[in-house]
Amino acid sequence: MDSWNTLSFAKKSLIVVGTLALLLFATSGRGNSPVATHTSAPESTSVASAATPAPVRTSAPTATPRLTPTPDQRWIPGLTNLDVTGNLEASPRNMTCQRVAEFDTPTGRRTGWTCKSTISGIIALRVDSVSASEVQVERVLAAVTIAGPSTTQVDAAAASFLGFVATLPYQGADPVAARQWVEANAASTTTQIPRATFGGAAFSTGKTLIGGSPFYSLEMRALGFPGTR
Length: 229
Description:
single chain, alpha+beta, 7-stranded antiparallel beta sheet, 4 helices, about 25% helix
């Protein structure tokens, strides 16, 4: 079988288009949006923590805002590692998650989880949580790498996956607005990375080209993380 590098442009294009169709189907809103998987939050009956929520694209934001007493802004409020890994592994993207060993960062000793999936050897999905403990998540980093040229279809597929990650549940989250903003900006290649704040988390997203292939990224970080403001 020909390696990817020796395939003709036409064959590459057909493979990429078919693979993107699968990814778009998986991220098109037919599946449920992430739901809160921990049970300690006081808002256990809210939209974000319901056992069987409606998809983000069709459900309206909850009318009752989450109320929290002055949260510790070093962490994304209410978000746990289980929220991240549980929702990604339960999604139709065949993602598997592994805990990573502790490592040093400018903000202290951290650990976390890495979730990965590869589709047809062409599209690589990765999500990392960076945390001080299982219930103290500092950042969530998501990336989509494509082994092929940047196209409108590629942009749409990557934006759809990153938009799904943006709906991870945390206190004060606005999953509808966050998803719409990420999907609208994930393919941005401006020199200034688009940034926005939704509740207790700051978001940044964009696209870069590496060797002619697109790399899409999303960062969700706590408001108290250095450089956020």
